[in-house]
Structures are given as C-alpha cells and as structure tokens.
Amino acid sequence: MYEIYCKLRDEKNCKDSDVAKATGITKSTFSDWKVGRSAPKNDKLQKIADYFGVPIDYLMTGKESPESKEPALTSKDERDIARKLMDTLDQLDSRDGLMFDGEVLDDETRELLRASLENSLRIGKITAKKKYTPKRYRTSED
Q1: CATH homologous superfamily for the domain 2-68
Q2: What percent of the chain has pLDDT over 90?
C-alpha cells in the first residue's frame, strides 16, 4: 500500500506533510506505515483515497476495476483547474481578506481551504467529463 501511496503522492507533486494536513493523518502514522510498524485502518485509507481521488481498492492493489475508471484529466484540464483555483482565491482575498467568525484566516486554514477548493474543482471537472462526453468518444468502460 505504501508504495502505491508514494506513487500517487509523487504524481500529484505533493509531500507527506501536504497529505497529512489535508487528511488529518499524522506524519508519524505515515512513517509507521513506511517501516511496517503498523498497517493503515480503513478510515485512514478512505481519507487518503478521497484525497487522491482513487478507490480504496486501487490504493491497496494498484489495480483499477473497469467500473471505477474515471475519465483522465488532461494537461489543459490541470491548467484550467489551477487558473480557476487562483482566480477564486484572488477574489476571496480581495474582499478585506478571508474571515471566519470575524477573524482573518490563518495560513493553515487558508491552505486547507485551497486544498478543498482544488479537490472540488477536480471532482467537478471529472463529473462534467462523464456527463457531457458524447457516447461515440467514450471508452467501452464509461
């Protein structure tokens, strides 16, 4: 499992600390998994799978079942997501800063918001691809 996690982490160009912040799993837990001191429980596996947008089966085996195959995001899709994310964050920052209960958001909360927005944009893009791709262009698995 840890090898597949590392592959997904590297493909997304993030660090263990990024995944730890977004999922609430401590870095020491990742270290324990790496050296084999412990095995991940299902709730933590689900958090990691959700973060990377893959099924738990893929995280455990590295193999996707045909029915779980998601449309792939192209480099153009990635650029669109990055641009939309930056535009959204710029708009939020331009209105006297982001506030929560009258307090300006701290850097950690702002980063969590950024990760959540990015994940939402990715899910939205994949959902749109599923819904609006004409049948003649779909693979047999879609």
Answers
A1: lambda repressor-like DNA-binding domains (1.10.260.40)
A2: 1
